[in-house]
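Practice problem 4.
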């Protein structure tokens, strides 16, 4: 994995590296490998992940085809900023 540092801005490079690692699933992998996982527990976890992925794909397909309504956009909690396009 390669991250370039621009203008000696280490903070920005670290933020980019963390985001990249999060996307790749490295943090999740490290957490899983920190302790021993029994083979039976591993099978249960992997099966649950596969079911979750399949449901997500089916839901997105149904939304795209118009079979179910798309979820409403979340409104910001009180005290939080509104999106830039909604401030006008």
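Answer key:
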């Amino acid at each position: 994995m390669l991250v370039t540092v621009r203008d000696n801005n280490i903070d920005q490079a670290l933020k980019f590296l963390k985001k990249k690692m999060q996307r790749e699933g490295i943090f999740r992998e490290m957490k899983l490998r920190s302790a021993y996982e029994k083979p039976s527990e591993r099978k249960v976890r992997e099966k649950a992940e596969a079911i979750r992925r399949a449901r997500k794909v089916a839901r997105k397909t149904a939304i795209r085809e118009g079979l179910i309504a798309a979820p409403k956009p979340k409104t910001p909690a009180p005290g939080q900023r509104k999106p830039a396009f909604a401030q006008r």
